Amino acid sequence: MGMSDDEIKAAMIEKATKSPKPALYVKDFYKCDAETKPRKIKNLANELVKEGKMMFWSSGSTTMYALPDRIKDEEGEGGI
Amino acid sequence: MAKHDTPLLDELEKGPWPSFVTDIKRQAEKNPDCWDILGILELSFRDKITHWKHGGIVGVFGYGGGIVGRYADVPKEYPGVEHFHTVRVNQPASKYYSTENLRHLMELWDKHGSGMTNMHGSTGDIILLGCRTEALEPFFWDLTHELGQDLGGSGSNLRTPANCLGESRCEWSCYDTEELCHHLTMHYQDEIHRPAFPYKFKFKFSGCANDCVAAIARSDFAVIGTWKDDIRIDQAAVKEYVAGNIPANGGAHSGRDWGSFSIKKEVIDLCPTNCMWMEGDELKIDDTECTRCMHCINVMPRALRPGAQGGASILIGAKAPILDGAQFATLIFPFIEISAENEFENVIEIIENVWDWWMEVGKNRERVGETMQRVGLPTFIKVMGIDPIPQHVKEPRSNPYVFWEEEEVEGGFDRSVEEFRKRHAA
C-alpha cells in the first residue's frame, strides 16, 4: 500500500523545508515516494501551489518550487 | 525629447536597415517609460554587462507559466523598467490574425504594458515586453475576457505549440497541421500552463519536409508531413517545364536570368538518393528509394505532387546549443497516420511514452534530446517499444563490441561455472 496523496504532499513540504536549497526542481520531490509516478508527483506539487503552500519560481526557461517563506520576492528583498 | 543620452545606441540607427532603437524612440514619444529601455541598454553597452535580473515569482493566479519575471538591477536610475515582465500570448494557429484582433491586442497592451512587442518569439508566441507586476492580472483578465486569447507556455512547461499554414493554404501539406496543433493545445492545457517536466518541451507541426516551422531544428517533438505512396507525376507538365513554358520553382528565381531550365542539372542530379531519371521525355522515379525530401516537387510544382496517402514522420530531440551544440531531431517513426477521427490517439500515445520516460530519466534542465544522447538511441528505441530500422542508423558502427541481451542468446546467460571450469581451469 503506497502513500496517500496527503502523505506525499506532507513529505514534499518537509523536503522543501529541510532542503539547504530554497527552491527545488520537481524531480527533487520524486524521492518523497519512489513508488509514485513522476506525473503524479508533478500534479501534487502543482496542487500545493494552488493551495498556497508552495510557490513557483521561474527563470523563464526553468521552473522551480519553493515554500513561500523561503523564497524572497524580487520586489522585496531581492530574489533567491 | 530624449530622457537619456544614448550615443552607442544611436549608432544602430545609421545603417539602411530598420532599427529597433528608432522603434523604441518612437514608442517612447507615446509612453515615456520606454526611454528607460534605451537608458538601461546604453548602460549595459557601456558596462559590458546586462542590467536585467532574470526570473522571479510573478505570474497570474492559477498559472505557472506565460509570464517571465524581469527586473532592472538599477531601478532608481531607470524607474520605467523597474518591473519589465514579459507576457507570452498563445498565437493563433498558423499565425492568422484579423487586423481588428491585432488592434484590440495593442490597445490592451498600450493600456496595461509598455506597448513594446516581439512578433513573434522563437517558439511562436506573441511576446509582449514590459509589464509591471500590478498590471499583470488586469491584463490577463482583459486578454481572456475581451479577446478570448490565452497565455502560452514558459519555464518547465509544454511550450506553446506551433504549426505551419498546413492545408489552409498549402497544397503540399500531408496532414492537417492546424487541426493537430489545435487539438494538442487544448488536450494539454495543464502542461502548457503549469510546469510538468525536467525542462522545456516543444511541439512543432510541419505539413511537409520543407518544414516551414523548422520543427526538425527547434522542437523536442517534431511532426513532419510525408507520404506513403508514390509522387504524383503529370508528364505533360514535365514536358512544359523542359520546354521552358512553365517557370521552375514557381517563378521564385525570375528576378534574374539564370539561363534556361535544365531538368538534369536542377532536378535529377540534385536528388539526394539518385532515384530519378529520364526515359525519352518522361520523368521516372524509383519511389522505393525516394526520401521524400521535396526538392523535385519544389522545382516543378505543377508537374509533381506529394503522394495521396499522407501522414507524418515523428522526430524527437532537437535543441538549440546548450551543452553539445545545436542538434537536429532524430527520426524515430518514419510514418504514422494522422487522423482527427481517432482524436490523434496514436500521436498522443507516442508523446506520453516520451514524457513518462523523460520525466523519470531526464536530469534537471536536460532536454529530451540530451537525455537520448546520454542513454543512447538503442535504449531510447527500446523504451519507445519499436524495432530498429535502417533509418535509425546514423553511421556504420565503430565500436567492435556487440552487446547481447539475454533473450537474444540461445539458452540465455545461465550456465554452470563448475562445468566451465572442468574445461577451463582458473
Could you explain the architecture of this structure?
Chain A is of the alpha+beta class and 80 residues long. Chain A has a single domain (5-70), classed as Winged helix-like DNA-binding domain superfamily/Winged helix DNA-binding domain (Arc Repressor Mutant, subunit A, Orthogonal Bundle), CATH 1.10.10.10. Chain A is built from 2 helices and 3 strands, in the order H-E-H-E-E. A 3-stranded antiparallel β-sheet of chain A has the order 1-3-2, covered by helices on one side. In chain A, helix 1 (5-18) packs across helix 2 (38-50). The longest helix of chain A is centred in the first third of the chain and has 14 residues, at 5-18. The radius of gyration of chain A is 13 Å and the shape is globular. The mean pLDDT of chain A is 89. With 426 residues, chain B is of the alpha+beta class. Chain B has 3 domains: 7-146, Alpha-Beta Plaits; 162-227 and 311-392, Sulfite Reductase Hemoprotein, domain 1 (2-Layer Sandwich); 232-305, Alpha-Beta Plaits, CATH 3.30.70. Chain B has 15 helices and 15 strands. In chain B, the strands form 5 sheets. Chain B has a 5-stranded mixed β-sheet. A 4-stranded antiparallel β-sheet of chain B has the order 2-4-6-5. In chain B, strand 8 (203-206), helix 8 (215-218) and strand 9 (221-227) form a beta-alpha-beta unit. Chain B is globular, with a radius of gyration of 27 Å. Chain B starts with 6 loop residues before the first helix and ends with a helix. Classes of the chains: A alpha+beta (80), B alpha+beta (426). Chain A binds chain B through residues 25-28, 30, 37-39, 42, 46, 49-50, 55-63, 71, 73-75, 79, and chain B through 53-57, 59, 62, 64-65, 68-69, 71, 83, 86, 133, 154-157, 194-200, 355-356, 359-360, 362-365.
